[in-house]
Amino acid sequence: MAAEVVRAYKTDSPEETQAIAEALAREAVAGDIFALNGDLGVGKTVFAKGFARGLGIEEPITSPTFTILQEYDTGRLPLYHFDIYRIEDSGEMEETGLSEYLDGAGVCLIEWAERIADILPEGINYITIEKDASASPDRRIINVEKVTEAKQT
Ligand code: ADP
Ligand code: MG
User: Fold this and answer.
1) Is there a contact between 58 and 73 (Cβ–Cβ < 8 Å)?
2) pLDDT tens-digit map of 37-54
3) 42 Cα–ligand 1 center, Å
4) Residues with Cβ within 5 Å of ion ligand 2?
5) 65 band by pLDDT with thresholds 50, 70 and 90
6) What kind and span of H or E run contains 129?
């Protein structure tokens, strides 16, 4: 399995981060999975808000830290927004019925997806957000990767 960076973005405000997410959401199709990683407070939920807007969801997006999943059905596609910060491991995650959402008709956006990397399918989108404090307190680098199978040689 090889990860290739498809696109890298630099942002200097929450609004810019949301605009990037919004553009990605407009290209999303049913069944897409977006694994969202990055430290606490880096901007994953900010990204999710822009992503929801890109799907045409107008209701407020709240962080599902305590509920694990928030589902939004008023956009172009259903959005399943997970925040699995409180999940210990993939076994615990499977009990939540994750696989039905992964195979569902909507788009999955999973904050802290790295915690359950072993049960996520191949070929999904990985979004990693990092701070670059050397530039400015609001600078973020957003990497958008698609994990592909290693090419046969
Ligand atoms: P996470 O979900 O990753 O824990 P949040 O999205 O809840 O983080 O919070 C990110 C915080 O960082 C917000 O307070 C937001 O205003 C701030 N922020 C500053 N600059 C940026 C940026 N360029 N992109 C996203 N968020 C930013
Ligand atoms: Mg969050």
Assistant:
1) no
2) 999 999 999 999 999 999
3) 5
4) 44-45, 63, 111
5) confident
6) strand 125-131
What's the pLDDT at 95?
A: 85
C-alpha of residue 44 to centroid of ligand 2, in Å: 5
> What spacing in Å lies between the alpha carbon of 78 and ligand 1's midpoint?
24
pTM surpassing 0.90?
A: yes
Domains, the chain, with CATH or none = 3-147 (3.40.50.300)
CB-count burial class (<10 Å; 0-12, 13-18, 19+) for 3? exposed
The Cα 116–Cα 93 span in angstroms is 7
Kindly report the length of the chain.
153
Closest ligand to C-alpha of residue 129 is: 1
Query: What span, in angstroms and rounded, lies between the C-alpha atoms of 94 and 70?
Result: 17
Tens-place pLDDT, residues 114-144: 999 999 998 899 999 999 989 999 999 999 9
pLDDT number for residue 22 = 98
CA 74 to chain centre: 19
CB 47 within 8 A of CB 18: yes
